[in-house]
């Protein structure tokens, strides 16, 4: 059972997530005094890399371990363009907290390997032998596990191997940690996995790592389940699907005669703003219950037309992840990028209109119109992802975090503040590749299947609406709401 675990230090709590009992650790700064006990014998934590997660985790850990005698150091290649960025964050050679990458790997008791997925795949044969005997390797993504599996490779037998995977991008991990300094438990939820435990301490080290990052609650998974759900989720509703959905909606609304600004507001602004905010606080059922009369009919028609096309493409994406095709594709793309760097998507008309709309705002939350058609399409995709992951036997805590919470509490607020294109162009390389590859497919399925079904009045309800209204995910989200800190992320 992957949802139970044993801990010698922390108090685990049992919660029912939509009919499934799972154990979690509730985080909070009141647990920080336990960290020296958890990390007894660990003198140096080496954070390797300065990409999406590296800056956030290095700074959070440095703050959490202050005055404990445990040093948090950053390891980079000397020629890295990130060297000066790490120095600006206070990690320097002068204070012995900024080191050459391989030197730090050799000295650290806990090595947090946070370089890009493609880089991990390329240089792990050089990294793993340098980790000292009895140390712990920590990952924040199961990607390397999946890649090594594809080539029948395995971990060295003399180290612990764990994962702590924040359910949000690095800037959110840091932002909510800083915002939550006065609110116990404010931060980004994490999953954790133990893939190899040589001394019986791996679970508590992983839990301590999550607590030190500021996770409000931490749930157990496996590395294989994590990379499947995470890589799949990035290509799905967390990023790729939102990209495709809003582009399809924008095109539909402009064809119907709306001005570009109105079309953008009804598609993108409504989704990333009020729709997202309601789901964050009240769940999908709370959003649905706000619609009455004609608006409810519009939502339901959009939902019914969209659900099965979304399930179809999400199923295809999941199969591509499980087959390891997506993981191999990331590595191959990394090689191509040496010659052809990835371009940006922000020069197309929809995103230029978005720049004008955001520039004209008087406040971040001034647009409050909850468009029922946009909401129906978005919720249908979200529900299709939930149902597919449950069908593939992922535990409910992982399902709601990868399909709902990470979207509404981490990624989408950045989209609302700075634009969907900004989010796609500034996330991790793995997520960025997935969004660019799959977003057009979401767009096409909506434009070619869902919307024509609505226009020809051929949408039918074969029990999908009752399944949505009575779905156990709503109870799971009620449980998550009880664990949710009162702090909403503030994106400047």
List keywords for this structure.
492 residues, alpha/beta, Rossmann fold, N-(1-d-carboxylethyl)-l-norvaline Dehydrogenase, domain 2, 2 domains, 10-stranded mixed beta sheet, 20 helices, 10 strands, metal-binding, KARI
Residues in helix, %: 55-70%
**Overall outline:** globular
Low-confidence stretches: none
Q: In what order do the strands lie side by side in the largest sheet?
A: 1-2-10-9-8-7-6-3-4-5
N- to C-terminal distance: 41 Å
Structural class: alpha/beta
What is the CATH homologous superfamily assignment of the largest domain? N-(1-d-carboxylethyl)-l-norvaline Dehydrogenase, domain 2
Compute the number of structural domains: 2
Total E-strand runs:
10
- Could you name the CATH topology of the largest domain? N-(1-d-carboxylethyl)-l-norvaline Dehydrogenase, domain 2
CATH class of the largest domain: Mainly Alpha
**Gyration radius, in Å:** 22 Å
| CATH-scheme architecture of the largest domain | Orthogonal Bundle
Order of helices and strands: EEHEHEHEHEHEHEHEHEHHHHHHHHHHHH
InterPro entries: 6-PGluconate_DH-like_C_sf (IPR008927), 6PGD_dom2 (IPR013328), KARI (IPR013023), KARI_C (IPR000506), KARI_N (IPR013116), NAD(P)-bd_dom_sf (IPR036291)
Binding site for Mg(2+) 2: 230
Family: Belongs to the ketol-acid reductoisomerase family.
Domain KARI C-terminal knotted: 222-364
């Amino acid at each position: 059972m992957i949802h139970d675990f044993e801990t010698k230090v922390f108090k685990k709590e049992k919660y029912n997530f939509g009919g499934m009992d799972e154990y979690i650790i509730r985080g909070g700064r009141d647990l920080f005094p336990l960290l020296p006990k958890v990390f007894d014998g660990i003198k140096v934590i080496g954070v390797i890399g300065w990409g999406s997660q590296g800056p956030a985790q290095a700074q959070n850990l440095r703050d959490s371990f202050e005055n404990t005698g445990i040093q948090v150091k950053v390891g980079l290649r000397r020629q890295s363009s990130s060297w000066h960025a790490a120095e600006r964050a206070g990690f320097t050679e002068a204070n012995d907290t900024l080191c050459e990458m391989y030197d730090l790997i050799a000295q650290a008791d806990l090595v947090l390997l946070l370089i890009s997925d493609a880089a991990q795949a390329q240089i792990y044969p050089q990294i793993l032998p340098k980790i000292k005997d009895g140390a712990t390797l920590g990952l924040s993504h199961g990607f390397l596990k999946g890649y090594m599996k594809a080539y029948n490779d395995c971990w060295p037998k003399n180290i612990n191997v764990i994962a702590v995977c924040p359910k949000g991008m690095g800037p959110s991990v840091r932002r909510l940690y800083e915002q939550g300094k006065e609110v116990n438990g404010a931060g980004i939820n994490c999953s954790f996995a133990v893939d190899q435990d040589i001394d019986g301490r791996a679970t508590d080290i992983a839990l301590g790592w999550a607590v030190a990052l500021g996770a409000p609650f931490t749930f157990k998974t496996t590395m294989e389940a994590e990379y499947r759900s995470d890589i799949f989720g990035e290509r799905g509703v967390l990023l790729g699907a939102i990209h495709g959905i809003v582009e399809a909606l924008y095109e539909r609304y402009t064809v119907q005669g709306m001005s570009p600004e109105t079309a953008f507001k009804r598609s993108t602004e409504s989704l990333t703003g009020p729709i997202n905010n309601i789901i964050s606080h009240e769940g999908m059922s709370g959003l649905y219950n706000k619609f009455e009369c004609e608006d409810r009919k519009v939502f339901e028609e959009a939902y019914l037309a969209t659900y099965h096309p979304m399930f179809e493409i999400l199923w295809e994406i999941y199969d591509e992840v499980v087959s390891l095709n997506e993981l191999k594709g990331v590595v191959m793309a990394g090689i191509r990028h040496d010659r052809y760097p990835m371009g940006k998507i922000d020069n197309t008309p929809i995103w230029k209109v978005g720049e004008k709309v955001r520039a004209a705002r008087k406040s971040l939350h001034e647009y409050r119109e909850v468009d029922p058609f946009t909401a129906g399409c978005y919720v249908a995709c979200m529900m299709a992802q939930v149902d597919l992951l449950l069908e593939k036997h992922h535990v409910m805590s992982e399902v709601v975090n990868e399909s709902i919470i990470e979207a509404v509490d981490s990624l989408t607020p950045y989209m609302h503040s700075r634009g969907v294109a900004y989010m796609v162009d500034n996330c991790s390389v793995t997520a960025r590749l997935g969004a660019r590859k799959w977003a057009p497919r979401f767009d096409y399925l909506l434009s070619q299947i869902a919307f024509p079904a609505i226009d020809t009045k051929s949408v039918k309800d074969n029990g999908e609406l009752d399944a949505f209204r009575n779905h156990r995910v709503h109870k799971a989200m009620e449980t998550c709401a009880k664990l949710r800190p009162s702090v909403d992320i503030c994106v400047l």
